[in-house]
């Protein structure tokens, strides 16, 4: 059912690297960086109490000056130590580059979801969209290093397909 997004959803490699290869002008624009409670399903995936706050980082991954992916990361406070201490201050640097640069980082299997307009992540991802589709596709996985975890959700925006087509022509 994922249609044209299927190959984007199932690719286990670095989405950041793939986008950097596709777009010469790839950029990361931070939208939100704050400490807040994660969604209940996120807390469960990270095996942390739902009442605990974590660093929530939301960014737009840009190509051809268009938002092509919305990324939402949840970093529990205990994860932001040691080698991951610098993740608090990424700014416009991609999180994926840091995660995939370290061969000791392990990644869980990807999970996928079709987000309806009522889903909170759909609403966050679609804020800047002038034409909102009935749903958006997302994938999620947990990255682990030394028993600390970070949850990353990537929501694929319609412009990704449009810019993919224009890059072929």
Name its key features.
single chain, 169 residues, alpha+beta, Chorismate lyase
Q: Could you list the spans in which at least 5 consecutive residues all have pLDDT below 50?
A: 165-169
Proportion in β-strands: 25-35%
Give me the count of strands. Answer: 7
Number of helices: 6
- CATH homology-level superfamily: Chorismate lyase-like
User: Largest beta sheet, briefly?
Assistant: 7 strands, antiparallel
As for the number of domains, it is 1
Average pLDDT, rounded to a whole number, is 90
Series of H and E elements: HHEHEEHEEHEEH
Helix-and-strand structural type: alpha+beta
CATH architectural group: 3-Layer(aba) Sandwich
Helix content: 25-40%
CATH class: Alpha Beta
* CATH fold name: Chorismate lyase
N- to C-terminal distance? 26 Å
From the alpha carbons, calculate the radius of gyration and give it in angstroms.
15 Å
Quick one: overall form? globular
